[in-house]
Structure formats: structure tokens, C-alpha cells
Write a structure and sequence with these properties.
Strand content: 15-25%
Number of strands: 15
CATH class of the largest domain: Alpha Beta
Radius of gyration: 21 Å
CATH architecture of the largest domain: 3-Layer(aba) Sandwich
Strand order of the largest sheet: 3-2-4-5-7-6-12
Shape: globular
Helix content: 25-40%
Low-confidence stretches: none
Structural class: alpha/beta
């Protein structure tokens, strides 16, 4: 397993290429390609890769990029693409279609602020705008976590018990354009980890069928219920995929949640992506001072790990949620999910903090101030906005 110094985009592109190449003994692979900052390097890497059985299709828009993925996946190929911000928004119609078609496509979302006004830095409003699509959503905190999660996403999405597409999110620039040392898998390891992609309802000349036709209310409700049941199976299948990953690669990726010092914590802060890395340092320093502070990193957003969240916060009296996103009129989106998970805890103070929107720095000092505010609260309030003064 080579250890290399790469940007997040390079690591992502190489991992996608190996995943596509691993399907060369089956129906091959295909990617729809359209550039947008800060994910363009991923598409550039894929476009330069020579697949044994597959191709990258340049198109005129993100909508078409997902359309290519849908067509390729319906033909039985392993399919994937990448986008960001307004590109994801333009892709939305086909994102929903891919989920409802039950196609195991993998989409890399390099989180970038939606515009206007135009902003190329990170927040999660773009990927979370797709939270009601029939897609799994994973949020990664490092280059290594990104590589490992891409492989997990293919493995879980293509499992016959799931057959749902997967979105893997990474922070724009913070991960996409910075370099870190990563243990990249070899092609042989990826071949061993990813079974041939089999889409059971793929187009086949021996059994002609149509897709996307008109259905009646009863049939539509039945299909949505099947998607719900598949989502409920994701945690079990993900755990199995992690077990197999550990056997083959010798390391164990984080599952739905990562906990740190939560066993006896009276105060817990919830974060995701690279904010969680900064929060770990704060927890370490506060623990050295004798404070019972813990943290939870949410990796799997869809389906949201509600029972795991309840278990991880069992000892807490205060929980603060860090949201690098905003749902107008409501607050942070992760906070909404945490609140739904902990709705039976009348003894718990749950506070939302909107922080780092539009790429604002989320430093340890910033999180220290939030921790102080949380520990001093006697009642919940509307979402607290950090660093909004101009």
C-alpha cells in the first residue's frame, strides 16, 4: 500500500479511478464529467486515466453529468461523478431521479457555498440541500477518511440489500486543495474489496422494460417505503463493509459516528468534517483541565444514526451542535437531526451554533468560546450565530 503526499482532490480522483477499474471484469465503469471549483481536479484526474473498460464522458452541464451516470448505471456499469455548490443545485433533478431509480452511483460533493453572492469557500448548504433525495450521505474529516469512505460508499451502495446512491462530502479547499500523507490502496486491494457491480434491474435486451413511467399513488407509496426499508438496513451493511475493510487494509474506518471522551461527559459538542479535527484538540485540552467535555463526529448523515446519537449522549446534560450550514427560518440542519434524535430527553439542554459559513475559519479559540457559552447556559435559545459582525 503506497504512502503518498497528495491533495484531497488527487486522492479522491485516484480512488474513484481504481474503483472504476475494479469493475473491468463486469460491465465496466463510466463517469459524467463537468468542472466546477473546487472539485475540477477530480474530473481532470479521471479524464486523464486510461480505463481498461470504461470512459469519462465530457458534457455541457452538471445536470447532464448525472444524466450520463444514470444511463451508465442503468446499463450495469459502475458509475460516479463529482460536483460542488451551484453545480450540485443544477444537478438536483437527476440526483432525485438516480435515487428513485435505485442506482448505486457515487457522487463526490466538494462542499462550497451556494451563490449568489459568489463564494468559493466551504459550507455544507450545497450537499445538505439534497438531504431529502434517496441518497446516503457521508461527511469526511481528512484525506485518509475520504479515500476509505469512497470505497465504503461503493461497497454499501452496490449491496443488493441497499441499492441506493451515495454522496461523499469533503470540505472545499480545506481538504480538496491541501496536501496530506495518505495510505492509498493498490489496484489489487481495490479489486479484492469491491465485488463486480451488479445492478439487478439493469437494461437488458433479453427482458425489455421501461423506466420512469407513470405510477398510481399506491405504487409510489410502496416504492418510497422500500427506499425507507433500504435506508434502515444501511447501518448493518456499513458495519459489515467496515469489518471487511479492516481485514483487507489493516485499519478500521469510522462508522456512522465517532465519539471522543463521551463516556462520562456532562457537556458534548457535535461536529462533522474538518471542524471535528479542531474540536478534538479542544476536548483534549479541556480534559487536561479536568472538564468533562466530549465530542461526537457525525459521519453518516443519511440515514441519520439516531440510536447511536442517543447512546453517545446518554450522560450529557448539555449538547451543542456546530452547523456549517443554514436552513433559513429554522437554523442548522445537523441540529435539526440531533434534536429529532433526542426528542425524548426533557432533561437535556440542546443548543445550536451556526459557525464557519462561507468558509469562515473555525479555530480552537472560536470553539473554546462556544464551549464556554454552552457550559454557562441554563436554557436553550435560538441558534447562536458566530462571527457575523462585519
Amino acid at each position: 500500500m503506497p504512502r503518498v503526499l497528495v491533495t484531497g482532490n488527487q486522492a479522491a480522483g485516484r480512488t474513484l479511478a481504481m474503483a472504476g477499474e475494479a469493475n473491468r471484469t463486469a460491465r465496466g465503469c463510466c463517469a459524467g464529467a463537468y468542472p466546477i471549483t473546487p472539485q475540477t481536479e477530480i474530473i481532470e484526474y479521471l479524464s486523464a486515466h486510461s480505463f481498461s473498460k470504461g470512459r469519462v464522458v465530457p458534457v455541457e452541464s452538471e445536470h447532464s453529468a448525472m444524466g450520463v451516470c444514470i444511463g451508465a448505471s442503468l446499463a450495469g456499469a459502475r458509475s460516479f461523478t463529482a460536483s460542488s455548490a451551484n453545480g450540485l443545485s443544477y444537478m438536483t433533478e437527476n440526483v432525485f431521479a438516480a435515487g428513485y431509480y435505485r442506482l448505486p452511483i457515487v457522487l463526490l460533493a466538494v462542499n462550497r457555498t451556494l451563490g449568489p453572492p459568489w463564494n468559493i469557500w466551504v459550507d455544507q448548504g450545497d450537499s445538505l440541500a439534497l438531504r431529502d433525495a434517496a441518497w446516503m450521505q457521508f461527511y469526511t474529516d481528512s484525506h485518509q477518511d475520504l479515500v476509505d469512505t469512497i470505497l465504503l460508499a461503493f461497497r454499501v451502495a452496490e449491496d443488493r440489500r441497499i441499492l441506493l446512491p451515495a454522496l461523499v462530502a469533503l470540505d472545499g479547499f480545506v481538504i480538496s486543495h491541501t496536501q496530506m500523507v495518505v495510505d492509498l490502496p493498490t489496484q489489487e486491494q481495490v479489486d479484492a474489496y469491491l465485488p463486480p457491480c451488479h445492478v439487478p434491474h439493469r437494461l437488458h435486451t433479453g427482458r425489455p422494460m421501461t423506466f420512469g413511467g407513470l405510477t398510481w399513488p399506491r405504487e409510489t407509496a410502496h416504492m418510497r417505503h422500500e427506499i425507507q426499508e433500504a435506508m434502515l438496513r444501511v447501518p448493518e451493511v456499513l458495519t459489515e463493509a467496515i469489518d471487511e475493510f479492516e481485514k483487507l487494509f489493516g485499519r478500521r474506518p469510522v462508522g456512522a459516528l465517532e465519539t471522543c471522551e463521551t463516556t462520562d461527559a456532562s457537556t458534548i459538542m457535535v461536529a462533522c468534517n474538518t471542524m471535528a479535527r479542531t474540536l478534538r484538540n479542544l476536548v483534549k485540552h479541556r480534559r487536561e483541565r479536568g472538564e468533562r467535555l466530549g465530542m461526537i463526529r457525525v459521519k453518516l448523515f443519511r440515514p441519520f444514526p439516531r440510536q447511536e446519537m442517543r447512546d453517545a449522549t446518554a450522560t450529557a446534560q448539555r449538547v451543542g451542535v456546530l452547523d456549517r450550514n443554514h436552513s433559513p427560518g429554522s437554523g442548522g440542519i445537523f441540529w435539526q437531526e440531533v434534536a429529532a434524535s433526542l426528542r425524548g430527553r426533557s432533561d437535556l439542554l440542546l443548543q445550536d451554533y451556526v459557525v464557519g459559513l462561507g468558509g469562515g475559519d473555525v479555530t480552537e479559540d472560536c470553539l473554546s468560546g462556544i464551549a464556554d457559552d454552552l457550559s454557562s447556559r441554563s436554557a436553550e435559545a435560538e441558534p447562536v450565530w458566530e462571527e457575523v459582525a462585519l
